[in-house]
Design a protein that fits this description.
The chain is of the alpha/beta class. It has two domains: 214 residues, Alpha-beta prism (UDP-n-acetylglucosamine1-carboxyvinyl-transferase, Chain); 208 residues, UDP-n-acetylglucosamine1-carboxyvinyl-transferase, Chain (Alpha-beta prism), CATH 3.65.10. It contains 13 helices and 25 strands. It has a four-stranded mixed sheet with strand order 2-17-19-18. A four-stranded mixed sheet has the order 4-5-3-16, with helices on one face. α1 packs parallel to α7, α4 runs parallel beside α6 and α8 runs parallel beside α12. The two termini are 29 Å apart. The chain binds shikimate-3-phosphate (S3P) and phosphoenolpyruvate. The site of shikimate-3-phosphate (S3P) has 10 residues, from α6. It is found in: Cytoplasm.
Length: 429
């Protein structure tokens, strides 16, 4: 953990950035390539710490994975041929790795033990383990399986018809992946649609997945065949520069290769609602995940209300949206976002406490926050809580402060965006 002093002297931002690979899609490319038989090739893979944790776990299961820049090759003889790991599977800071692997390992034929870092040790796992246990999974862990470390004895599973109590793509994906190995048809019912990368990518690997009005189903016993995956740029990473371009003076930046999957594009809708000068030009490629070139300019912004079914479409962007709202005229209300409390840290408390230190007019509510703007921000010493998205929020804020912002642990950005600080250097004028 090392401190970083950020003193950018209120630059304007100009230029073009190629946004690095999507974290959710990168994780799934390795997981599905490892389950599949044959060779899977991935282009545009995110070399973030979370995705490297996923690679490390599958190597411990005996899957051959080669990394060459952002190209990754996975050679697997299929899930039936994985080796029982002699070491603990370490998932680092990654909720996605931990929860999706539970669904995968539950229906394998091997025993494994999984643990992660201090943040993972506080994140709820029963939301995944409860439905998996209903399918017959044999999983034990601390606090009856609520927290890591967790031990999984792979076994035969039965299909489930499950109504999701929270909008979570990690829970949905874990159940669907277990469902692949279960007897019968697994059905997951969502009241609010969460990101659908699993559904899209399973089809690329040859699995039949039905999606109808929030009901996702698949027949157990289907196998995956290795394929090619093109990873789009991560809209959650792009969000930091979209907000930076909107709030810095005399700025215009273009972001290339931004994933615009409709289950992820809430940030674009919010920027438009708030009056930002943003243009989105979809790319005409025929990929499973659509992409676009997005340009943003210095904007005059109005406050807005963000709640309901848009929340899952921008859940990871709320810290940076809160910063955006401090620069908008009037009130911004963020509600229905209790899920923020169980991310890498409690992101309601972290966002409110840290933006207050910078001079923002912001208050926490039970399910979100209320921000009054516009407020000029000033420098301060900020805590990241080891949470990449809180660290990047603080760093983008430092672009509009006259004096320095200090981050206690700037290295945490490498969880999802290792080139983040280089990208700031590349566009600041
Ligand atoms: O499935 C995924 O790849 C993710 C789902 C979301 O979590 P939840 O499923 O907990 O909402 C999101 O916050 C996380 O960054 C990645
Ligand atoms: C919540 C996040 O990821 P995960 O759940 O995979 O740790 C995130 O990237 O903001």
């Amino acid at each position: 953990m090392s401190e970083k002093v950020l003193q950018y002297n209120q630059p304007s931002l100009q230029g073009t950035l190629a946004i690095p690979g999507d974290k959710s899609v990168s994780h799934r490319s390795v997981m599905f390539g490892a389950i599949a038989t044959g060779r899977t090739t991935v282009e545009g893979f995110l070399l973030g710490e979370d995705c490297l944790s996923t690679i490390d776990c599958f190597r411990k299961l005996g899957v051959a994975i080669e990394v060459n820049g952002t190209n990754v090759t996975i050679d697997s003889a299929g899930i039936e041929n994985w080796q029982e790991p002699t070491e603990v599977l370490y998932t680092g800071n990654s909720g996605t790795t931990t929860r999706l692997m539970l669904g995968i390992l539950a229906g394998s034929s091997i025993h494994s033990v999984m643990t992660g870092d201090a943040s993972i040790g506080k994140r709820p796992m029963r939301r995944v383990i409860d439905p998996l246990r209903q399918m017959g999974a044999q999983i034990t862990g601390r606090a009856n399986g609520q927290y890591t470390p967790l031990a999984i004895q792979g076994t035969t599973l039965q299909a489930i018809d499950y109504t999701m109590p929270v909008a979570s793509a990690q829970v949905k994906s874990a159940i669907l992946l277990a469902g692949l190995r279960a007897e019968g048809t697994t059905i997951v019912r969502e009241s609010e649609v969460s990101r659908d990368h699993t559904e899209r990518m399973l089809r690329q690997f040859g699995v039949q997945v039905e999606v109808d009005n929030g009901v996702v189903s698949l027949q157990g016993g289907q196998t995956l065949t290795g394929t090619h995956v093109a990873v789009p740029g991560d809209i959650s990473s792009a969000a930091f520069f979209l907000v930076a371009g909107a709030i810095c003076a005399n700025s215009r930046i273009t972001l290339e290769n931004v994933g615009i999957n409709p289950t992820r594009d809430g940030i674009i809708e919010v920027l438009q609602q708030m009056g930002a000068a943003i243009t989105v030009t979809p790319s005409d490629n025929e990929q499973a995940e659509p992409t676009a070139t997005v340009t943003i300019e210095t904007s005059t912004l109005q406050g807005t209300t963000i709640g309901g079914d848009i929340i899952p479409r921008l859940i990871d962007e709320i810290p940076i949206i809160a910063l955006l709202a401090t620069q908008a005229q009037g009130q911004t209300i963020i509600k229905d976002a209790e899920e923020l409390k169980v991310k890498e840290t409690d992101r309601i408390t972290a966002v409110v406490d840290e933006l207050k230190k910078l001079g923002a007019n912001i208050e926490a509510t039970e399910d979100g926050m209320v921000i009054e703007g516009p407020t000029p921000l000033h420098g301060a010493a900020l805590r990241t809580y080891g949470d990449h998205r809180i660290g990047m929020m603080g760093a983008i804020a430092s672009l509009i402060t006259a004096d320095a912002v200090t981050l206690d642990d700037a290295e945490c950005v490498a969880v999802s965006y290792p080139s983040f600080f280089e990208h700031i250097e590349a566009v600041k004028k």
